[in-house]
Amino acid sequence: MRRAVFRFAETGAALSALYHRARLLGAEHLPARGPVLLVGNHGLWGYETPAFFHLIHRATGRYPLGLAERGFFKIPLVRTVLPWLGGVEGTRENALASLRQGHLVVCYPGGAWETFKKPRYHYTLRWEGTLGFVRLAAQAGVPIVPFAGFGVDGTFLCPENERWCVPLAPGEKYRVPLGMGLGPLPLPVKMTFAVGPSLEPPPADAPESRLKHFRDRIATLVHHLLIRACHA
């Protein structure tokens, strides 16, 4: 069952990449082996993730793991299937374990704040001052590779009105905006992903000021990559 679901999802990811004419720029910055933390912006509903992961696998032969919002693991069917597809519950312990096992791990610091953003926040990094991904890379001693995806916020049309949102899961503060595409399909927008050179994180015992400086540097690089992807 697990293998069948994975193969079905793999085919769906390839079709999604084809439908959106998805491209990956800067694939040479993705290591062929060894642990690395990819950090970048998230699209609406996280819909772009399968296509992005497909492009990474096609370029490197590696299956990336994605740190997923914990709220998804409160949904019965999702919490069963998501790990089969490379989704890891986004806890520090799980992330460290994945990196220490040598995986290529994808992190979206904005999490659900970016995934369920309203139209006025499209292509903004809603990282809310987080330092989690910097501390993670510093503790694991792995490089960070910044990336950005353009087109990822245009796949569905969502209203600004909060009434058109539903809770992610019982007890969760996040609300999922409802939207529409081209009938049952998403809008056929072109997706372009740009990857930048890796950066070594500060040491694990670095002061918070240095961690913040590094976080801001990564955010600036992601903004630059967004511009590159937009004009590619």
Structure overview:
With 232 residues, this protein is α/β, with parallel strands linked by helices. The chain is 36% helix and 16% strand. The protein has helices spanning 2-19, 49-60, 76-81, 92-100, 111-115, 132-140, 208-231; strands spanning 23-25, 36-40, 65-68, 87-89, 104-107, 144-150, 165-167, 175-177, 192-195. A 7-stranded mixed beta sheet has the order 1-9-6-2-5-3-4, sandwiched between helices. Strands 7-8 form a two-stranded antiparallel ribbon. Helix 1 packs across helix 2 and helix 4 packs parallel to helix 6. The longest helix has 24 residues, at 208-231. It is globular and about 50 Å long. 40% of the residues are buried.
Please tag this protein with its features.
single chain, 232 residues, alpha/beta, 7-stranded mixed β-sheet, two-stranded antiparallel ribbon, 9 strands, globular
Mean residue pLDDT: 89
In the predicted model, the low-confidence regions spanning at least 5 consecutive residues are: none
Beta strand %: 15-25%
Radius of gyration: 17 Å
Largest sheet: 7 strands, mixed
Could you give the order of the helices and strands?
A: HEEHEHEHEHHEEEEH
- CA-CA gap between termini: 40 Å
Helix- and strand-based class? alpha/beta
H/I helix tally: 7
Helix content: 25-40%
Q: Report the strand count.
A: 9
Principal-axis shape equals: globular
Q: Order of strands across the biggest sheet?
A: 1-9-6-2-5-3-4
Short description:
The protein is α/β, with parallel strands linked by helices and 232 residues long. The protein has seven helices and nine strands.
